[in-house]
Amino acid sequence: KLGQGQFGTTYLCTDRATGADYACKSIGKRKLITKEDVEDVRREIQIMHHLAGHRNVVAIKGAYEDQVYVHIVMELCGGGELFDRIIQRGHYSERKAAELTRIVVGVVEACHSLGVIHRDLKPENFLLANKDDDMSLKAIDFGLSVFFKPGQVFTDVVGSPYYVAPEVLRKRYGPEADVWTAGVILYILLSGVPPFWAGRALCFIVNCD
């Protein structure tokens, strides 16, 4: 078992034909209660294929289903989460933080240029391809991501506490919400702590005004 999310669990799996190891996110169909839940999974798979080929986006190998689960097979990143690396180090130097932020912003630019908003960028959703290279970042978890058109405005509140942009909480936002989150990640890389500690959305909005 590699990780646990709201809808799915990620396991280590092995291709019997080649012996290659992969990560497999298995989503229980019984948790997909509404048509919107089913569409979210389909869109996640579609977006991963849409972003395929970017060096800093985890590669999808395929998607399969049986009577009980939907399985998304991806490249295996053995270096753990960027979040855990920050905890280990405490914080990064300005130079290292700039290098990592360049990668994060590159992912944001790639997503937006292809008409995708990630909507849940955070250190937990960047994996390291290996333990020895802090620069081998791979963006993961496109479960909240959506396609967008220029000028399109979104109103649904999604994202993670401490990282979500204030315009998301105000229910009027577009791709710029990812840019805010990239700035929060930069702050955490430099300081080791999030810029806002308020627990409630109202307090968070007041802090941003």
Features:
2 domains, 5-stranded antiparallel β-sheet, Transferase(Phosphotransferase), domain 1, Phosphorylase Kinase, domain 1, Kinase-like_dom_sf, two-stranded antiparallel ribbon, kinase, alpha+beta
Would you list the SSEs in sequence order as H and E? EEEHEEHHEEEEHHH
DSSP helical segment count:
6
Radius of gyration from CA coordinates = 17 Å
Mean pLDDT: 92
Distance between the termini: 42 Å
At the fourth level of CATH, the homologous superfamily of the largest domain is: Transferase(Phosphotransferase) domain 1
Oligomerization state of this entry? single chain
Count of folded domains = 2
Report the CATH C-level class of the largest domain: Mainly Alpha
The CATH architecture term of the largest domain is Orthogonal Bundle
Structural class: alpha+beta
| Major beta-sheet overview | 5 strands, antiparallel
Low-confidence stretches: none
Task: Categorize the overall geometry.
Answer: globular
Beta strand %: 15-25%
CATH topology of the largest domain: Transferase(Phosphotransferase), domain 1
Number of strands: 9
Widest sheet: strand order? Answer: 1-2-3-5-4
Pfam family, one: Pkinase
Domain Protein kinase: 1-209
Function: CIPK serine-threonine protein kinases interact with CBL proteins. Binding of a CBL protein to the regulatory NAF domain of CIPK protein lead to the activation of the kinase in a calcium-dependent manner.
EC number: 2.7.11.1
